[in-house]
């Protein structure tokens, strides 16, 4: 009896977990209204996985845990479509759209303005068909040739925007839904950025990425890609569940758990169709996904049946196509732009060409690795793509059209803005200007970092004020900040005399800092607070840091060859040394640091911060721990000394408990910090507790 009760309890918990997870998927992917945080979703899914692992007899095909993990297939089976997946006839201008509306009205023998059309954007992805029996997903297939497709059920099951089980009670015994699998711009860029970082092949465009992901034999690959599904058609449904119109069917699909386009609209007559196409064209660049047109369908299903089909397309629907987003052109030259952080980005100067209605004359080449991957050269003919607000980029080179005068693209040795050396250390993808504080291209960003709270902490010097000072050329280097006079500052818009006086006073206070803060403020690539603190503890004075060899820098705790290279390169640049000397001339100073006298109390300890702290920000807590010699990590391991847990602490807290790592609340951390900060000289100044 007890065993039966236990089984019932387990089944109830599994049912509750599955219901919460599927509801979370529906709210996130269909309603775009997340109901629970990602950490809570992960916790629920992990709990369900644990229970199902202990009770495998409880695993069912519609469980959220079954979206991933199927073994790679040997090949995709053929699937015969019960209802052919036909293509649509295309319209390319307003006259053709109006002709479509006129033909529909004539065949229906009605006034053109009486015909209602359901319109939606034409997603640029891969068309698929989903079959549900008694509410469960049993088959997913590609369009193929319209009659026969490939069975990719295992891959489609990994998409969280595809329900494994339909929502609601009165479910159709049979339902076939057609829709588009696609990839958002943000997901596509993140996927390619990750591929570039790993040195892997990047995808040409979101459509190719979506199609390639779905046709992987290993479902785990599809599961790892940012794929989405949007339903646009009901191919089969029980007669008693059939709705009077296409728009009503789309509403029904949302109730059953499918995402449909939020842009769907019902219009009347040719004017309504033209207006919708114009509206979608104007919104095209604002969407986070590719559309290549608009789909226009007669809304009334009885009218659709009356209109029927031609050989390969329905008479009741048409696709209005936007101008192509890919074109061919020629690379005439390559320029190197210097970004705010010193990164050099190669930009192709193109023979101007119209792409998606816009004249394009420049396209990003990302970095030298991307140039090598493309094998792009000056005077090559290339395919370029412009989609949405994404910067135009080169998709591929047409090697068959390479001319004899094609020239190899070479990274400059000197910065094109300040003439400082260009560095590319180790296996890093990016090349950077070593000019740092001196380089005009990096000036605004360098000054913002220099004056930030964890650097020299110049109160009142915000982003807009820095922009104004740089644009007026009142400030070219950090030292110029300390030469500003209140009377001149008061001339700036929205800068009263009192504000000017307060800023000058703040600048005076910030002259007196710590050596670790000063090194951090210099903005050396990959030198954060912990690294700056380590340099001070090791060398004790700035001159020794500046004169240290690459090998000597690598001898510092937690500094590897890449970071050592950045530090050595920064101080080897004469412009940077001159800027430091200028800062010292205008009165920036710090107390001498005695090294070797006392070890920091938290030296050798690794701490982790998780959740929201009430009194301190995470950055403040990290800075104070680092000042006491600790290393602050983003992940928990057996070597972690302690985890500080605030409100809504997630998986890090749970992992700490599993590993037996000490867990500390914020008040205990504050007590420990006060205790050590009152007795230990530090290389960085402490933040206040409030």
TrEMBL record:
Residues 54-73 are annotated as: Disordered. The keyword Zinc applies. It comes from the Bacteria. Its EC number is 6.5.1.2. NAD(+) binds at residues 38-42, 87-88, 120, 143, 180, 297, 321. InterPro entries: BRCT_dom (IPR001357), BRCT_dom_sf (IPR036420), DisA/LigA_HHH (IPR041663), DNA_ligase (IPR001679), DNA_ligase_CS (IPR033136), DNAligase_adenylation (IPR013839), DNAligase_N (IPR013840), Hlx-hairpin-Hlx_DNA-bd_motif (IPR003583). Zn(2+) binds at residues 415, 418, 439. Residues 597-677 form the BRCT domain. Its cofactor is Mg(2+); Mn(2+). Transmembrane segments: none annotated. GO terms for biological process: DNA repair; DNA replication. Pfam families: BRCT (PF00533), DNA_ligase_aden (PF01653), DNA_ligase_ZBD (PF03119), HHH_2 (PF12826), HHH_5 (PF14520), OB_DNA_ligase (PF03120). Keywords: DNA damage, DNA repair, DNA replication, Ligase, Magnesium, Manganese, Metal-binding, NAD, Zinc. It is an enzyme of class 6 (ligase). The active site is at 122 (n6-amp-lysine intermediate). GO terms for molecular function: DNA binding; DNA ligase (NAD+) activity; metal ion binding. One of its GO terms (cellular component) is cytosol. SMART domains: BRCT, HhH1, LIGANc. It catalyses: NAD(+) + (deoxyribonucleotide)n-3'-hydroxyl + 5'-phospho-(deoxyribonucleotide)m = (deoxyribonucleotide)n+m + AMP + beta-nicotinamide D-nucleotide. HAMAP family: DNA_ligase_A. DNA ligase that catalyzes the formation of phosphodiester linkages between 5'-phosphoryl and 3'-hydroxyl groups in double-stranded DNA using NAD as a coenzyme and as the energy source for the reaction. It is essential for DNA replication and repair of damaged DNA. Belongs to the NAD-dependent DNA ligase family. LigA subfamily. This is DNA ligase. It comes from Kushneria avicenniae. The gene is ligA.
